[in-house]
Amino acid sequence: MKKLAACLLLCVLALALALPGQAAMNKYSTVFMDTFDTVITLIGFADSQETFDGYASLVHGQYAYMHKLFDTYNSYESEGIVSIHTLNQKAAQAPVEVDPILFGLLTYCKNNHALSLNQVNVAMGSVLSIWHDYREAGLADPESAQLPPMEKLTEAAAHIDLNDLILDAENKTVFFADPLLKLDVGAVAKGYATEIVSQMLLGSGMPSFIISAGGNVRVGQPPMDGRPAWGVGIQDPDGAILGMSDIVETLFISDLSVVTSGDYQRYYVVDGDRYHHLIDPDTLMPGDFYRSVSIITRDSGFADLLSTAAFLMPYEESRAFIESLEGVDAIWLFSDGSKQMTEGAMAVAKSCGATNK
């Protein structure tokens, strides 16, 4: 399913101070652990615990609903919800009407496929499901862990043409022209959902917030304690594997997203080598150019898509790709411990002199 990309740690001060001329705003936080297969943390400044809890309930409800819509592995038809799983079962038989949110996500992914240089293809479900099954089996029985046979992956890759995903905008229906096509929106779904939730908060009475959803971080207006920006830390990949919380960089940002794709969250080991979940559509194998790539831009869904695309390209191509996009910056972490950053990333990076004062 959705990639659980690099863990981003929040660097948030504990005290919340009232701003002059405004009602006292305090910092509150909560954690959701039952959606998108990750821990989602919400921190916001509100005038009371009751106010914060009200917005937190809305956020949780939206995440829970979108989790069901975007779920590849479970059906919610008994609740009247058409999920990705349901589409994979029924959309080759006849057009299936879906929720406008799910239709919007599929339209977004199809429209941005070329922009990602064809690296992010939500019609790769047949290939990704094979990797998922072998990874799950390998985690359950490490001594018997195996790689998927290339002939099996190649056979599945004959059914990943995004043109076979037929979207009817007027009727909000989805149809598969290829009966063996399968969808997997994991490369974009969590970021897309996070942006929907964030836009709700930005238009609400709690626009000062930070959401951390696994490798996806979205911040709203600056924290209402006098600081000009939120601090977001990018985790050391080796620390993540060892269960440590070391960070390799801190970024100071407001009204932006930071989304990281990395090789150290969803993986399994075969003959001493780790194989992660970010699969190159050309080789049908996990990408191996970096430990992680972090994208900095406003829209969290766009950042999610770009982090996967950039991760699967060689460095020179990846950097040229990112620098061709307006309002997008990136940080690349390599296996030897080195890193590269675009100029915009350097401008907000603590290691390059950025501060939060």
Task: Summarize the model shown.
The protein has 357 residues and is an alpha+beta fold.
Verbal overview:
With 357 residues, the protein is an alpha+beta fold. The protein has 2 domains: 8-69 and 187-270 and 293-352, T-fold; 82-176, ApbE-like superfamily (T-fold). 31% of the residues lie in helices and 23% in strands. It has 10 helices and 16 strands. It has helices at residues 49-69, 84-90, 100-111, 125-140, 150-157, 189-202, 237-241, 300-311, 315-323, 343-347, and strands spanning 8-11, 26-35, 38-46, 96-97, 165-168, 173-176, 209-213, 216-219, 230-235, 247-253, 257-262, 267-270, 273-276, 292-297, 329-333, 339-341. It has an 8-stranded antiparallel beta sheet. A 3-stranded antiparallel beta sheet has the order 1-9-10. A hairpin with a 2-residue loop joins β7 (209-213) and β8 (216-219). The longest helix is centred in the N-terminal third of the chain and has 21 residues, at 49-69. The radius of gyration is 20 Å and the shape is globular. Mean pLDDT is 92; it is low at 1-21.
